[in-house]
């Protein structure tokens, strides 16, 4: 069994996995099925990460950090902006050049968000929050992420493109949030769309 991990370690591991996906996506081109499939996986991983941050990272930022509300509001706004790009990427009829442009935009925005968290916010968190609290939040964040659809291995048969599986007219971003938060509670953890 893995030893307990603190919140910064758990979120940094997500960032590492997301950065790996971005790098893999950048070497692919056009609208080939593998590229679209990896983009679906990127959207799932990014939304799963965002839900964990909104549940366990931003609340402690608001509570403990100087100007915490300002920092958390900015980060939530960046999540909302990214998910708008993801929703546009989900469209199955997107021409290849438009898809490439949106994908680059998503990757640039996500990398900027990750660098800001790692270089500015994580050090503040370590300064203002006790190691015990960070450990407890890390374990909670890990269980919050569990259960979302995971990433397959290259040897596994390719599943159908996830954004093309329409369920009740709901797109991939909402489906991942529904899966993790429960139907109708998809945005209840964020400050941008309170219940
Ligand atoms: Fe993050």
Question: What are the defining features of this structure?
Answer:
195 residues; mainly alpha; Four Helix Bundle (Hemerythrin (Met), subunit A); 6 helices; disordered C terminus; binds fe (ii) ion
Strands, helices and their partners?
Elements: H1 7-27, H2 33-64, H3 68-89, H4 96-128, H5 131-145, H6 172-181
Helix pairs in contact: 1-2, 1-4, 1-5, 2-3, 2-5, 2-6, 3-4
This protein binds fe (ii) ion.
**Overall number of domains:** 1
CATH architecture: Up-down Bundle
CATH fold name: Four Helix Bundle (Hemerythrin (Met), subunit A)
Sequence of secondary-structure elements:
HHHHHH
Rg, rounded, reads 17 Å
CATH superfamily: nmb1532 protein domain like
Q: Please estimate the helix content.
A: 55-70%
Broad structural category? mainly alpha
What distance lies between the first and last C-alpha atoms, to the nearest angstrom?
37 Å
Bound molecules: fe (ii) ion
Largest sheet: number of strands, sense, barrel closure? none
CATH class: Mainly Alpha
Silhouette: elongated
Strand residues, percent:
under 5%
Q: Helix tally? A: 6
């Amino acid at each position: 069994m893995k030893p307990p991990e603190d919140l910064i370690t758990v979120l940094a591991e997500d960032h590492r996995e997301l950065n790996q996906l971005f790098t893999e996506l950048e070497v692919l081109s056009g609208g080939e099925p593998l590229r679209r499939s990896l983009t679906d996986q990127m959207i799932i991983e990014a939304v799963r990460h965002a839900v964990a941050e909104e549940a366990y990272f931003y609340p402690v930022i608001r509570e403990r950090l100087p100007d915490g509300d300002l920092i958390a509001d900015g980060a939530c706004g960046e999540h909302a902006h990214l998910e708008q790009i993801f929703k546009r990427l989900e469209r199955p009829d997107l021409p290849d050049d438009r898809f490439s442009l949106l994908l680059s935009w998503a990757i640039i925005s996500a990398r900027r968000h990750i660098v800001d968290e790692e270089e500015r916010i994580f050090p503040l968190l370590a300064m203002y929050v006790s190691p015990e609290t960070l450990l407890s939040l890390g374990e909670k964040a890990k269980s919050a992420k569990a259960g979302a659809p995971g990433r397959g291995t290259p040897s596994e048969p390719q599943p159908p493109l996830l954004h093309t599986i329409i369920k009740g007219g709901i797109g991939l971003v909402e489906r991942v949030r529904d899966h993790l938060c429960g139907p109708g509670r998809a945005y209840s953890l964020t400050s941008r769309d309170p219940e």
